[in-house]
Amino acid sequence: MDQEPLPVSVDPDVCVGSGDCARVAPAAFEVSDEGLSVVQEGARTTDRSLLENAVRDCPTGAITLIDDASGAPR
Ligand code: SF4
User: Fold this and answer.
1) Using one digit for the tens of pLDDT, what is the confidence trace for 3-47?
2) Residue 33 belongs to a domain with what CATH number?
3) Which residue of 29, 30, 38 sits with most ligand 1 atoms within 8 Å of its CB, as the best mutation to test the pocket?
4) Which of 4, 23, 25, 59 is most buried (CB neighbours < 10 A)?
């Protein structure tokens, strides 16, 4: 079954586990026990504007929005 890609990704090499993303969009991000943000299925139904806020608020630039049409980072 083809599944649409998640609309956002986190680079685990860049994330420092600050948790800002999970505070901005708690349905879309969860900080794991390892201290890394993990994108949740709820990201699919999270407002784009909230995801954009999470990208903006991430202190290390670890979050990438995925383009709807192409599935490519933008
Ligand atoms: S805001 Fe950025 S650095 Fe902080 S937990 Fe989220 S992805 Fe990681």
Assistant:
1) 778 999 999 999 999 999 999 999 999 999 999 999 999 999 999
2) 3.30.70.20
3) 29
4) 25
8 Å CB contact between 36 and 12: yes
21 lines ligand 1 (CB under 6 A): yes
Structure tokens at 29: 């991000």
Which amino acid is present at 15? C
Give the tens place of pLDDT for each residue, 50-71.
999 999 999 999 999 997 656 5
